[in-house]
Design brief:
HSP40/DNAj peptide-binding domain, three-stranded mixed beta sheet, four-stranded mixed beta sheet, alpha+beta, elongated, 2 domains, 9 helices
Length: about 290
């Protein structure tokens, strides 16, 4: 897991100016065009600055990375949110903003603007369950901009269909330049009866009229396995039942809930015996 603050040598509450100053200093030392420069260190430093110099990216990095640094639980196989620099903003077609990274490097190297590699876009498909709990995908990139390479993509819990994941520095690499980024568009397959609403999961449940009147126990299939749901006698049509902690994991280690909307089935037709029973109930004022 990469610690961008450690790479730049600044504290986690460092100001924008302190971050910029630290990057300038390290870029002077590590740039490949400098005597004794280190290309790998330069790329790593540029990647750290690209994230920490942007308020939104830094906030996302701090939010997803904090759990990892404190040794807390993370969801999904090999999920490493801090290392991937997530950005769930929309995927534009007019190019991507690289911030003032190029301007800083330009001022360092006598007005010569450092080239930046192209960004690469790929698509991945997830099951509904993977989109809830997080997952890991390995993709092979082989384009006219990038030599064939395998990239591991960590997908955070709760991601929605159509959202983007940004992997900083995983795009085209130019010799002596700043690497581009990899943008991953996520496609989530629909679930037959579950849907998302924030950190909660929603489902509909049909019960018989007799179950609504007398009560019942129903076996419910959740993403965590089967549970037995108690239907109280006198349950009304449209009532919503809550099952705590069976929803989507949050960034602070908790989970949303599962909400079940109950629908009482009314028979289209009644047998002679059933009609007689209903008429008896009517006489009782029910």
């Amino acid at each position: 897991m990469k610690d961008y603050y450690k790479i730049l040598g600044v504290s986690r509450d460092a100001s924008e100016e302190e971050i910029k100053k630290a990057f300038r200093k390290l870029a002077h030392v590590h740039h490949p065009d400098k005597s004794g420069g280190n290309e790998a260190k330069f790329k790593e430093t540029s990647e750290a600055y690209a994230v920490l110099s942007d308020k939104n990216k830094r906030a996302q990095y701090d939010a997803f990375g904090a759990t990892g640094y404190q040794g807390g639980e993370t969801r999904g196989a090999g999920f490493d949110p801090a290392g991937f620099g997530f950005d769930f903003s929309g995927f534009g077609t007019a190019g991507f903003d690289t911030g003032d990274l190029g301007d800083i490097l330009s001022s360092i190297f006598g007005g010569r603007r450092v080239r930046r590699g192209r960004d690469i876009a790929v698509d991945i498909e997830l099951s509904f369950q993977e989109s809830v709990f997080g997952a890991e995908r390995k993709v092979v990139i082989n384009s006219k901009f990038v030599r064939q390479k395998e990239v591991t993509i960590g997908v955070p819990p709760g991601i929605d269909d159509g959202q983007m994941i940004r992997l900083t520095g995983q795009g085209e690499t130019l010799e002596g330049g700043v690497p581009g980024d990899l943008y991953v568009k996520v496609h989530v397959r629909k679930h037959p009866y579950l849907r998302k609403e924030g950190y909660n999961l929603i489902m509909d449940l049909e019960i018989k009229l007799t179950e609504a009147l007398l009560g019942a126990e129903k076996v419910i299939h959740t993403l965590d396995g089967e549970i037995t749901l108690k239907i109280s006698a006198g349950t009304k049509h449209g009532v919503i039942l809550r099952v705590k902690g069976k929803g989507i994991p949050t960034s602070v280690g908790k989970r949303g809930d599962l909400y079940i909307r109950v629908s009482v089935q009314i028979p289209d037709r009644l047998s002679k015996e059933a009609r007689t029973t209903v008429e008896e109930l009517k006489k009782l004022g029910l």
